[in-house]
Amino acid sequence: xxxxxxxxxxxxxxxxxxxxxxxxxxxxxxxxxxxxxxxxxxxxxxxxxxxxxxxxxxxxxxxxxxxxxxxxxxxxxxxxxxxxxxxxxxxxxxxxxxxxxxxxxxxxxxxxxxxxxxxxxxxxxxxxxxxxxxxxxxxxxxxxxxxxxxxxxxxxxxxxxxxxxxxxxxxxxxxxxxxxxxxxxxxxxxxxxxxxxxxxxxxxxxxxxxxxxxxxxxxxxxxxxxxxxxxxxxxxxxxxxxxxxxxxxxx
Length: 251
Hints:
Elements: E1 25-27, E2 33-41, E3 44-46, E4 49-52, E5 55-64, E6 67-76, E7 89-98, E8 104-112, E9 131-140, E10 149-158, E11 171-181, E12 184-193, E13 206-219, E14 225-235, E15 240-249
Antiparallel strand pairs: 1-2, 2-5, 2-15, 3-4, 5-6, 6-7, 7-8, 8-9, 9-10, 10-11, 11-12, 12-13, 13-14, 14-15
């Protein structure tokens, strides 16, 4: 893996998110798009692993042509728990480029989940930082009746290190297949870790995320519907299971 990943330049974009309960999207004549939305989930599950309980998860996104910049965050309801340590707080920044109609997307992400009160967000020293830098490569089959997508993620820098201070290059592979049944949009997911990765609590190949997500909408008025979703998630590696409910506020 060291011979494959040699040189990647990560650009860090700092964005201030201060909105919940409102969502707006705009598009100008040049094709530039901005979008703001927020999810409220009963629990936060990441790649089959439990992170925290009920959480707000806002998104701020910018895109033009095939390029996009996205800021995504998650904050639980506990705030700062002085008696128990740090409350959950995550900020993920992602730059991605989709190569036309090829179905191929390349992404670079900065994942930070050190928690409220950890501070030192701007410490990027290799052996001190709490950031995880991850590269992703996604491909969707060009088949209208079988739009299966495959994504490979690898952490190439940051906190993902072994006891000797060497990079683990923890990787995660995910397959997603979207389909619909009547008025419900469904997505079947299978996520796996191809080799040993302490980040995912694996000592070799393991399936860590088997899920089915259903999304529909509740009509509130003639001009507004509230998207809701439920997701059943199983982690065979950890012998764990979750059922998540949430809704999305967006234009």
